[in-house]
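S1.2 Input.
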Amino acid sequence: MFVFQSAAFFLLQISSLFVWGILVVIIIPFLNLDKRYKITMLWPKLNLKLAEYLIGIRFEINGSHILDRNLNSNVILCCNHQSTWETFFIASHLKKPVCFIFKRELLLIPFFGWGIFLLNMIHINRKAGRNAIQSIISEAPKQFALGRWLVFFPEGTRVRLLEKKRYKIGAAVIATELNVPIIPIAHNAGQYWKKNAFIKKPGTIVVKIGNEIYPDGKNPNQIISLVREQIEKLKDEIA
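S1.3 Output.
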């Protein structure tokens, strides 16, 4: 039943990426970083609008006041990862710009990779281990100075709806080293926009924002355990 809607969405997504990518690569190098970000993030917003009108995927946010009270603060956002939807959402629907921590291989994707390269975010070699974390620690203050929040997907990859993954410790190490809080975010996007699924289903994605987790003398293992506990609790509340 949803094949035609999903096909229409896919075709418009790919064609818009092609057109947007060319415009971005041509125009963005001549703009300042703030304008680059705003223009580039219109494409994720377009994707969510297309998903809403073509497929019927909507969303609601619970706990946005927690983000609002941190608009003037340096914060790390930790979100569960089920699909591409949450990446589009975080990039285009928060009141503050964000910096994604992503693997450098994404820079090789035509148009998409070129666009994010021009946004001066943090790309890492995931095989570098501790060196990768050190590079984030070095780069994070620059991102905070730009007025951005840092975004981590601590599961490290997209996870199917009921699948459980061990959380990677990187975000907790950064929080400890830089003494910044982590805000947990949970959602159920995988229920309607599954990992690697061509066919998407209509429905309302629920996004829940949890309370800040402050380092306060905790070690990274304790922090990431609290992050996982909060995200899993929020996911249970959504279910």
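S1.4 Remarks. The mean pLDDT is 90.
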